[in-house]
Amino acid sequence: MDSCIFCKIIRGEIPSYKVYEDELVIAILDVNPSSNGHTLVMPKEHFSDVTTTPKNILDHCFEVSQVIAQAQIKQLHATGVNIITNAGKSAGQSVMHFHIHVIPRYENDGLDISLGFPIKKIENKDMLLLCDSIKKGI
């Protein structure tokens, strides 16, 4: 999809903080994170959401999400992780390219345990540190 922002990131047209990549999947830090280390896992091929993604790719995306979550716990000392995907605008999906949010949680992090996650601004230098830290745990 030419206009899809995630497809542009995957093609290298838009810079990103890449945490993980293989032949099927890319994982990047969310530039509008809910917490330090908030990562997006997505297939390189464009599928609109979880309901249209082939099972083998879906399975692989969730396997990578588990590895990212384990790295966030180990490297960022997260005490929990939310793994969330939204399907459709009414469910809160804002980019129509299937992706999974892997959101590290911390004691007293101030985030609502519901789906109403606020956006947290993080400086570029801190994004690089977070990205490198997660990579070390993979």
Tell me what you see in this structure:
This protein is an alpha+beta fold and 138 residues long. It contains 3 helices and 5 strands, in the order αβββαββα. β1 and β2 form a beta hairpin. It is globular. The chain starts with a helix and ends with a helix.
Low-confidence stretches: none
Number of helices: 3
Terminus-to-terminus distance: 30 Å
Quick check: average pLDDT?
Answer: 93
As a percent range, the share of strand residues is 15-25%
Structural class: alpha+beta
Helicity, as a percent range: 25-40%
The secondary-structure element order is HEEEHEEH
3D shape = globular
Q: How many strand elements?
A: 5
Give me the secondary-structure topology:
Elements: H1 5-10, E1 18-21, E2 25-29, E3 39-43, H2 55-76, E4 80-84, E5 100-105, H3 124-136
Antiparallel strand pairs: 1-2, 2-3, 3-5, 4-5
Helix pairs in contact: 2-3
Question: Descriptors for this entry?
Answer:
138 residues; alpha+beta; 5 strands; 30% helix
Compact description:
By secondary structure, the chain is α+β, with helices and mostly antiparallel strands. It is 30% helix and 18% strand.
